[in-house]
Amino acid sequence: MLENSLHVNLLLTGIVAQLAAYPQPLLRSFLLNTNMVFQPSVRSLYQVLASVKNQIEQNASTKKDFPELVTDAQEFLLSQEDALISRGMLEDPLGAHNGQWPHDHEERRAQVVLSSKIKQVTPYPKIPPQERNVVFATVLFTEFLKELAAIAQEHSILSHVPMEE
């Protein structure tokens, strides 16, 4: 994961998250159960994630400015998301635009044009090219763990809801 580009890591984490969210008990158990016992040559998702965490911690301990680089990468990715939302190229995850619910397409278009003129896109962070993959992978890793935790919690809640007949 640390050697992959941001694009590859986004695809990889997206696929794993979709598989984990799929409501199939065997697949869910294979991906989200931390107590599963596999054959010695097969690593669980938990073991792989623990290994990636250790690699990130090892990289972070060798670079003095690693926390600042991660913060810069987070701000850059958030600004990219905001820029895509303001241009109408990405749906707002909450369904609202700038906290307001647009009443029609014309109002939304006017908001997009106005906000795109106002917003300044954060310049590409000054992360050395040899560290770029590691820094972006670190940001993506933390967000991916949050997503997996939310999926596991959702499965837990849904497993206690009685099925409708």
Can you tell me about this structure?
There is one protein chain. This protein has 165 residues and is mainly α. 65% of the residues lie in helices and 0% in strands. The protein has helices spanning 6-21, 25-32, 45-62, 66-86, 105-118, 129-159. Helix 1 (6-21) packs parallel to helix 6.
Which secondary structure elements does this structure contain, and how are they paired or packed?
Elements: H1 6-21, H2 25-32, H3 45-62, H4 66-86, H5 105-118, H6 129-159
Helix pairs in contact: 1-2, 1-6, 4-6
Brief synopsis:
This protein has six helices and no strands. It is an all-alpha fold.
Return the string of H and E elements.
HHHHHH
Report how far apart the termini are: 43 Å
- Helical content (DSSP H or I, runs of 4+): 55-70%
Tell me the fraction of residues in β-strands, as a range. under 5%
Mean pLDDT, nearest integer? Answer: 81
Q: How many whole angstroms does the radius of gyration measure?
A: 20 Å
Structural class: mainly alpha
Number of E-state strands: 0
Shape: globular
